[in-house]
Design a protein that fits this description.
heterotrimer, A alpha/beta (about 150), B mainly alpha (about 260), C alpha/beta (about 290), B: about 260 residues, mainly alpha, C: alpha/beta, 6-stranded mixed beta sheet, 4-stranded antiparallel beta sheet, 10 strands, globular
Chain lengths: ~150, ~260, ~290
């Protein structure tokens, strides 16, 4: 019967290792973080063109990651893109009303993210508010076209 | 000419019959509440099928992770994008290589062993005598092995991924000098738990069902001679491999292809 | 040879209620069975008497093992019936068949011991499946059965450690574990050395007598089988070719029976595989094969 105890132990360890491996994958490899649901607040921002921005893209302030893009939808009232942001709860009520959100690119060809910059307005944004001042993504074709038309007009 | 068509037709019918037998076999074996003794039988099979496959799966995972990092680095460095090595290694492993390669290795090692074992039990009439005593061999012999395969392969896949990512770390960071922070950081930023790890595990589960089913059925259905056993083990490995690769394409298209 | 056979032990196991009269225990009626295109049995009738050893013999390949499987309910006939103690084997519900299997034991050609269980566990297996006896009782029963076949000391060995003859004896102990009324022996004498052969033959005879069993022995070993059989059926070409006591078969005039019983190399079953005339073949030196 000792043989079966060893076997049970072995299989148990095997399964435990599997579960721990999954945890490792979750945390270290996919960067899963534990965030209680009360810890984030929602803001909306409309952009004329979101470029290559994807859901779950980062939201940064001064380069520090402060949240994620949770959803991107088409705004049927204004026919532009409405982006839903989930930001750290610590920032709730700390961002001014004239905070700007811009779609930036990491590096030259990297992934796109949103960078927010605080303004000076004494009034602040609350959960569910909309960021008014936005800067759309830079679309390469439009840039080239602008450059060319500038050159022609010179 | 006509006889050729007739021959093809007969082969087609035989194939359908075999498929039907396999389906009924699966339904009769997998469905049913296991008894207390069944628990212990499952445990034994988990050991033979899972624990004993660990060595080959983990070693292969390590080497594949290391090779991925090596090859990936040489390609990425031309674009100045070697910081993306972590995410390249992780995504390749989690989405494709871990589920597929672990399943292929499993088919070769555990699958063929299952086929041979059940085939031998059939050839030495152990299955028949079990039935004569009044025990259903499907419940006592086949079901524990099926369920062991279903559980063991996904666990082995997880192990493969973990070791592969670590192997990539060893080569990329320790040897080739990729910055450690970017290896893990970029990886964490781009690997989605549900989308990548989750889908990889779904693939692994599908493969587990298919490979174990093929292995066990081939053993149960074979001609009970030594030649029959050897033919059946070959069939297990070949059919399992083809099934895994084919299903991989279908699943990848469903999970990662169509929708963006 | 069997002075240490412990007769008292066996007598306690003897079923007192079994009448030793000539009543049929197993009846096979007009059995038809085909596997694929090959017709294996066409109209086989057998009557197996209770308490007797009945041998079923015939040239190899006539499907004798298949017959045992048909009797045991593992295969279903295309036509005809098999009755065991008056009940149609193939019309039973699952539970009834399970109960019926408790009264039967089967000894396979290769022993068919479960390779992952020890000798003790193998013999205990049917007891565990069919009864709820406590561990201590099971242990006692297993040891008694092993003692009856002379292998009590081998109880902890694994099947891979046993010789062929020993494996068969353990399989016999297992087949006897539930004190069945019917035992089916599938080619028990194949490939045995003289000593094991002698042991097995005696065991079959003694157990049959002492326990009032009905035994069906399928074999093509004339010499051994005819020494213990009470009645013999010879099956060839899917039918019963002859039947009778060993003595009557020995003097049977039918050339097919005679060739089989006396082991003559040539007769109705020819020695030469069909071929062209020998002289023609040899003289065809230049004309290819």
């Amino acid at each position: 019967m000792k043989r079966s105890k060893m076997m049970e132990l072995g299989v148990g360890l095997f399964m435990l290792a599997g579960i721990l491996g999954l945890v490792f994958l979750g945390l270290r490899v996919s960067g899963l973080t534990f965030q209680a649901s009360g810890d984030t607040f929602r803001l909306e921002a409309n952009f004329a063109n979101i470029g290559g921005l994807k859901p779950r893209a980062r939201v940064t302030m001064a380069g520090v990651t402060v949240g994620r893009v949770s959803a991107i939808e088409l705004d049927t009232d204004w026919y532009d893109a409405r982006v839903i942001l989930e930001l750290d709860g610590d920032l709730e009520g700390r961002l001014s009303r004239d905070t700007t959100a811009a779609i930036l690119t990491a590096g030259l060809l990297g992934e796109q993210y949103i960078g927010i910059t605080v303004g000076g307005d004494p009034e602040t944004l609350a959960d569910g508010d909309t960021i008014r001042d936005t800067q759309s993504a830079v679309v390469l074709e439009e840039l080239i076209q602008q450059f060319l038309s500038n050159m022609i007009s010179d | 000419m006509i006889s050729r068509i007739a021959h093809l037709g007969r082969r087609g019918c035989e194939l359908l019959e075999a498929l039907g037998r396999a389906g009924i076999f699966m339904a009769q074996s997998a469905i049913g509440v296991p008894s207390r003794e069944g628990w212990y039988l499952w445990l034994r099979q988990m050991h033979f099928v899972g624990v004993l496959s660990l060595a080959i799966v983990l070693v292969s995972g390590l080497f594949i992770g290391m090779v991925l990092a090596l090859q990936g680095y040489t390609i990425l460095v031309d674009f100045g994008a070697e910081q993306a090595l972590g995410q390249m290694v992780a995504l390749s492993l989690l989405r494709e290589l871990a589920p597929v390669v672990a399943a292929l290795l499993f088919a070769g090692r555990a699958g063929s062993a299952l086929t041979a074992e059940i085939g031998l039990m059939k050839a030495t009439e152990q299955l028949t005598s079990m039935e004569m005593i009044g025990v259903d061999p499907l419940r006592r012999v086949v079901a524990p092995r099926l369920w062991a395969g279903f559980v063991a392969l996904p666990l082995l896949t997880i192990g493969f991924s973990v070791v592969g990512v670590y192997g990539g770390y060893l080569v990329g960071v320790e040897w080739l000098g990729v910055f450690e922070g970017s290896y893990w950081g970029n990886m964490q930023a781009s690997v989605d738990f549900v989308g990548d790890i989750g889908n990889g595990m779904v693939k692994s589960l599908v493969f587990a069902v298919v490979v174990t089913w093929i292995a066990v059925f081939q053993g149960y259905d074979l001609v009970p001679t030594s030649e029959g056993i050897s033919r059946a083990t070959t069939r297990t490995v070949v059919y399992s491999s083809l099934a895994v690769l084919g299903l991989d394409f279908v699943l990848t298209a469903m999970m990662f292809g169509g929708l963006s | 040879m069997f002075d240490n056979f412990s007769p008292p032990l066996l007598l306690t196991l003897k079923r007192v209620d079994q009448p030793m009269s000539d009543t049929p225990f197993v009846v096979v009626e007009d059995l038809h069975f085909s596997r694929g295109d090959k017709e294996i049995f066409r109209g086989v009738d057998l009557t197996i008497q209770r308490g007797r050893i009945t041998a079923i013999m015939g040239p190899s390949g006539t499907g004798k093992t298949t017959l045992l499987k048909l009797i045991g309910g593992q295969l279903s006939p295309d036509a005809g019936r098999v009755l065991i103690d008056g009940e149609d084997v193939h019309r039973q519900s699952r539970r009834a068949l399970f109960a019926m299997r408790r009264r039967m034991g089967m000894l396979f050609q290769s022993g068919a011991l479960f390779s992952d269980l020890s000798v003790f566990e193998n013999v205990a297996f049917p007891l565990r499946v069919h009864t709820d006896l406590p561990q201590a009782m099971i242990r006692d029963l297993v040891l008694m059965k092993l003692e009856a076949v002379g292998l009590r000391g081998a109880r902890s060995l694994m099947p891979s450690e046993l010789s062929g003859g020993m494996a068969r004896r353990v399989a016999l102990a297992r087949a006897m574990a539930l004190d069945p009324e019917l035992i089916l022996y599938d080619e028990p004498f194949v490939g045995q050395d003289p000593i094991s052969m002698g042991v097995l033959v005696q065991l079959i005879k003694r157990l049959n007598e002492a326990l009032g069993l009905t035994s069906i022995v399928v074999s093509h070993d004339i010499k051994e089988t005819l020494t213990i059989a009470d009645y013999v059926y010879v099956i060839a070409d899917g039918e019963v070719m002859a039947h009778g006591t060993p003595q009557s078969l020995d003097v049977d005039q039918d050339p097919r029976v005679s060739q089989f019983v006396h082991g003559e190399p040539d007769g109705p079953v020819p020695f030469h595989y069909p071929a062209v005339d020998f002289t023609t073949d040899i003289l065809n030196a230049g004309g290819g094969r």
